[in-house]
Structure formats: C-alpha cells, structure tokens
C-alpha cells in the first residue's frame, strides 16, 4: 500500500505551516516561537523533512548537527505529526529518513530530549531503538 503522505525537503516557505502545527502538537513550555521555528528551519546545517498529504502538512522533523564527545550527532530539534496522521508510521518514517540523511552527512548517531512526563514519546523512541543516554529523558541511537 502506498504511503498516505509524501516526504520532501523542508524549505523556508514551510515555516508558517510548521509553526501552526507546532502550536497544536506541543503545550506552551515546549512550543517554539515563530522566530525560533524560522531560525531552526532556515539554519543551513539543518536537515528538515516535511510530510505532505493532499496539499496539507502531515508532519515534519528538524535535525541539527551537534558536536559531542567522539564525533558529531544529529540532534532532533522537533518532530511534529498532525493528529490525524498519528499511529500510522509517519513519525517513524520521518525519523528514519533523517537518520539516513544525518549518517550521510557524517553523524554517528542521533540524540534528542524528551520531557520525562511524556510517556507516549518515551515509548515511541524506545520502540524506534533509542536508549536512555546520560540522564532520564535523553535518548541516543547510534549508527547501525
């Protein structure tokens, strides 16, 4: 069965829709301001993957490279999926695509932070192969 969405590289013109989706996906302490969203998406080093379905933004992921002891990792700045596209595999597909692109760019792993009260996200990342790293709520997945 074909995907219900199509992945493509994100671009600056996607920022307004990405910002609107972020407002729906995250509570106040975890939302990005419009300016921050614009800045993280337009960063030249960012990997930004957008999923579209019928002209609608279904989800997106933004990953930035970060130096860490022993190398460079991709850092998941945000992963947002519209409610009607959740539990269909979109988040996993977005994550896998950025893992691949980050590895091609020289990253030796992917790191991210999850609010410790977000048990759904923690379960998702654990099922995706991520493990707690350093402190509860921080996850890392190293290259295969």
What do these coordinates show?
Helix 1 packs across helix 2 (about 35-40). This protein is α+β, with helices and mostly antiparallel strands and about 140 residues long. The protein is built from 4 helices and 7 strands, in the order E-H-H-E-E-E-H-E-H-E-E. The protein has helices at about 15-25, 35-40, 90-105, 120-125; strands spanning about 5-10, 45-55, 55-70, 70-80, 110-115, 130-135, 135-140. It has a 7-stranded mixed beta sheet.
Task: Record the SSE blueprint.
Layout: E1 6-9, H1 15-25, H2 34-42, E2 47-53, E3 56-68, E4 71-81, H3 90-104, E5 109-113, H4 119-127, E6 131-133, E7 135-142
The SSE order reads: EHHEEEHEHEE
Low-confidence stretches: none
Number of helices: 4
Strand content: 35-45%
Question: How many whole angstroms does the radius of gyration measure?
Answer: 14 Å
Shape: globular
Mean pLDDT: 88
What distance separates the N and C termini?
27 Å
- Helical percentage: 25-40%
> How many E-type strands?
7
Largest sheet: 7 strands, mixed
Structure summary:
This protein has helices spanning 15-25, 34-42, 90-104, 119-127, and strands at 6-9, 47-53, 56-68, 71-81, 109-113, 131-133, 135-142.
Features:
seven-stranded mixed sheet; 144 residues; 7 strands; alpha+beta; 35% strand
């Amino acid at each position: 069965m074909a995907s219900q969405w199509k992945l493509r590289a994100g671009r600056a013109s996607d920022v307004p829709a990405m910002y609107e989706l972020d407002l729906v996906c995250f509570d106040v302490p975890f939302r990005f301001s419009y300016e921050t969203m614009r800045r993280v998406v337009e960063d030249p080093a960012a990997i930004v993957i957008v999923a579209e379905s019928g002209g609608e933004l279904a989800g997106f992921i933004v990953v930035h490279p970060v130096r860490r002891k022993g190398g460079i990792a991709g850092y998941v700045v945000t992963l947002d999926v519209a409610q009607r596209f959740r539990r269909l595999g979109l988040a996993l597909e977005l994550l896998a695509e950025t893992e691949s692109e980050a590895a091609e760019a020289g990253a030796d792993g992917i790191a991210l932070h999850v609010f410790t009260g977000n048990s759904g996200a923690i379960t998702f990342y654990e099922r995706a192969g991520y493990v707690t790293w350093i402190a509860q709520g921080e996850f890392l997945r190293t290259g295969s």
